[in-house]
Structure formats: C-alpha cells, structure tokens
Amino acid sequence: MNQESKNRDLSLLIHDLEPGQFEKQFPALEKEYLVISKDKPIRHCICCFDCFFKTPLECTIKDGYERLGVLFCGASRIVFISRCVYGGFSPFVKNVLDRRIASNLPFYKVQRDGLVHHRPRTENQPRYFIHFYGDYTEAERRTAEEWALANDVTLNIPSHVIHFYKSAGEITEKNLCE
C-alpha cells in the first residue's frame, strides 16, 4: 500500500476520557483508529509559527505531539470525544486542535462570507464527528453548535456531525461516525 492510500484510510480519535475508560468502553477501536488521549501530557502551542515556515507540518515542541499537522492532513475522518466546557472542547482536546494548526497554510483567502481564513495545506479535508458529554447548559450547547459551524470555515472542514450526551458512557461504537 502506498503512502497516499495509507493516508486516505487514516482515522483519528481524540478523547479526554480517563486512563483505562476508553479501553474499557471501546475495546476494539484501537485497531480501527489512531487514538490520541491525555494519557501522555501535551504542551501548549506557543504560537511561534515554526510549523508553518521552518519545519512545515511539524511542531518544534518535542512532546510526542509534534506530528499532529501531518495526521490531520492525512486523516479521512476525525472523531472527538470531549467533555463540553463552556460550550467548547476540554483543555486537552483544545490543545490538540491548537497544535494541529500546521495542517493549514500560513497564507490567507477571503471566504464567501467576506471573512479571512487560512488556506488548507492539502485537498484532503476530513469529516469531523464531535461527541460532547457532561453537565452542560442549553446555552453551552448552542455555543458548541455555533463554534462547530465557525470551525468548519476556519479549519476548512467540509462537514461535521455533533452529538451531546449527559455522560461519556452513553457514547457507543455504533454512533461514533453517525
């Protein structure tokens, strides 16, 4: 299998579940997805933009997450499982999204809505499947929905699906990509 077809088959699953919870709840998924979890600490993006210019697609912070730009560029689908925090992702999942900035180019384009956004680095743009859980308010739910729509444009996402649950235990393998 060549590298191009390998990349098209890549599925990422990014979650903030407690260590051991993911394996217990989704025992077979590690064979189907490249799983990114908070089992290993992630450092914050420092906005140095080296991943745009000096080391394209690779973060200069060497903490095991330096190739997120490559992974996001190559994925066909990305599944997020995150506690809903003030209408957005949990700190760990938000950190992963921040560190993937290199999957866009440093150049800008004007969208049809007149806003300026980064250009995509590749033509491959994965679908996002977002699963929020936790004790969120209706206002936080609306904020999360609006945020997801705004990120479709900002991150060059062709489409997303978003679900809300009261607990992470309600999320099943069956509904991950529905």
Task: Explain what the structure shows.
By secondary structure, the chain is an alpha/beta fold. Helix content is 27%, strand content 25%. It has a single domain, classed as Rossmann fold, CATH 3.40.50.360. It contains six helices and seven strands, in the order αβααβαβαβββαβ. The strands form two sheets. The chain has a five-stranded parallel sheet. Strands 4-5 form a two-stranded antiparallel ribbon. It is globular, with a radius of gyration of 16 Å.
Largest sheet: 5 strands, parallel
* Helix-strand makeup class: alpha/beta
Side by side, the strands of the main sheet go 2-1-3-6-7
Secondary-structure arrangement, i.e. CATH architecture: 3-Layer(aba) Sandwich
Secondary-structure element sequence?
Answer: HEHHEHEHEEEHE
Identify the CATH class.
Answer: Alpha Beta
Q: How far is the N terminus from the C terminus?
A: 28 Å
Q: What's the helix count?
A: 6
Count of domains: 1
